[in-house]
Amino acid sequence: MSLLPHFGTDMLMRTRISIVVFALATSISVVPANAVLSPASIPAVFEEFLDNPLLANPAMILIDGASGGVIYGRNAFSQRRPASVMKIFSGAVAIKYLDLQSRLPTNISLGLEEKTLVIQGSFDPWISLNDNVANKMDRTSLPYLGFNALKAAKKSSPGSLKGFTVLYSDLFSQDIANLKAFWSQRGFYPSFKAVTSEESMLNAGDFIVGDQSPKISEILRYTLLWSENNLAERLGRLSARAAGYSFDDKGTAQVFTELLVEHGIDSSKLVAIDASGLSRENRITATMMGQLLYQLHKDPKYAFLYEALPVGGVSGTLRTRFIKTAPKAVGLVRAKTGSLNGTITLAGYVESTGREYVFVTLADQISRGVTAGKKARAAIDRLLGRVAAPNIPSEMSALPATS
């Protein structure tokens, strides 16, 4: 006797097929929250994550690090504020145009003319106002230079320190201001005159004192690791000058544009007001930055950039990230952070079981305030936590037998 007397054979068959199809569809579409996402399942899950109102309709792209194929994109061609993600440009052009192993000297001499000091700089971007910090970090020490130069000036002019002139070349204006303040606190008020590097060399007499920067590689590493704005600005200008452009923000914008064009990336939506990302007028697209990160990672010349990026839960500006929000992602994300009031960004690389993704997230429409920023960071961390997983070898050596 049939247990389903009210169903015909055709109806029963259609019902069974429907149940099977529903089961298959359910097994395919439902991804456990703790499962690492496959490339095919990423778009649906990311779309749901990015609907989070805390991120306020961000721009994002996820690129396969091996093929360059776009796994996921949302508002990827929309112009957005990069905040300190802009420093990826600064780092890349520094690697391209500057000698990472070089050090930048600053020397002070007595001038050939009486009551004259000559400072021959080389645009050292990291002169320290604290001698202890300078010694600890191998930086040029302004107090060391200033004290020795003052001592020599007094010795060369026993009668008076009045009427001295300082001829200087290749120093940042802020460093000149700092040196003026240092000397004025000690009763020394020379007049300052900017000259060319050739003029400073021709007017230099007896050497007094000199110091030098760390290697440019160490300056750049610190800049990316701790998102140091002043260093990013100065490295951007040094790179622009080395490339033959003007030593200002305009030159920096030109060298950033050239970097994109060289790598075959559309630069039409780039708006580069500064090299640090501090300006709220800067604009990039997620696609632009994603393609740049992908291209740079393929080129061994830019390996230092990858290595210098902060690591999630481990170092730099990412040292406290992911630990509570996405613990499984700790150590698996290398990225540049960005933060302005109303803007939280992150761009870099994430490991995922034998593959690596390039990602860019630009959330520049969030609510203003510290709390909104923290919540947006946490949401981005959790999103990356869905794809982050250690690279586990496909073949494992046999375990020793246990007794």
From TrEMBL:
Coiled coil: none annotated. InterPro entries: Beta-lactam/transpept-like, Peptidase_S13. GO terms for biological process: peptidoglycan metabolic process; proteolysis. Keywords: Hydrolase. GO terms for molecular function: serine-type carboxypeptidase activity. Belongs to the peptidase S13 family. This is Unannotated protein. It comes from freshwater metagenome.
